[in-house]
Amino acid sequence: MDNKSQQQQQVIRLISWNDGFHIYAKVGNDDVVDECGNQKWSTRKEAEDAAKWFIENNNGYENHEK
Questions:
Q1: Where are the domains of the chain?
Q2: In order along the chain (66 residues), what is the average pLDDT of each group of 10 residues?
Q3: Which of 3, 4, 8, 53 is in the most buried spot, having the most CB atoms within 10 Å?
Q4: Rounded-to-integer distance, Cα 32 and Cα 65, Å
């Protein structure tokens, strides 16, 4: 299986607690930690972007220019 297929199979879950202000992200069973060490974000988009970065940088994927 190539890297692109493996990346597409990664499941991203976004989690927020009742009455919570932050969004947390998981990839599979792993807690997402971004390049700045953050583990919680203010918006779903920030959390999703961090999860995508996590997949690209923590599973042997090349970092692609956007």
A1: 3-58
A2: 57 93 96 96 97 86 39
A3: 53
A4: 21
